[in-house]
Amino acid sequence: MSERVIRKSWDDIKPRQEVLDALDDVADEELERDIREDPDVAPILDEAWFRDAELLPARKMPVSLRLDPDILAFFKNQGPGYQTRINGVLRRYMEAVQRQERG
């Protein structure tokens, strides 16, 4: 299998001067506003971001819970992590009820 090589000169690929001039005309404030309003922009990970980051939730609390045998079998048959999956189902239910209560 032969590879097709395409050669280009610097004149073919260097940025055109009119594009560079247009970028120079954009004010810093306008660029900063566009960045703030862009929903796809990644957060700036500066010292303040790390200071204000949410702490991880507390460890889960061990409880004794009575479940119907078929419910427990269903989750256990899913393999390791069944308790985490049960917790996830309960969390989604809790969040749905809270959303309804808020209206």
TrEMBL record:
Taxonomically, which superkingdom?
Bacteria
What InterPro entries would the database entry show? BrnA_antitoxin
- What Pfam families does the record point to? BrnA_antitoxin
Name under which the protein is recorded? BrnA antitoxin of type II toxin-antitoxin system
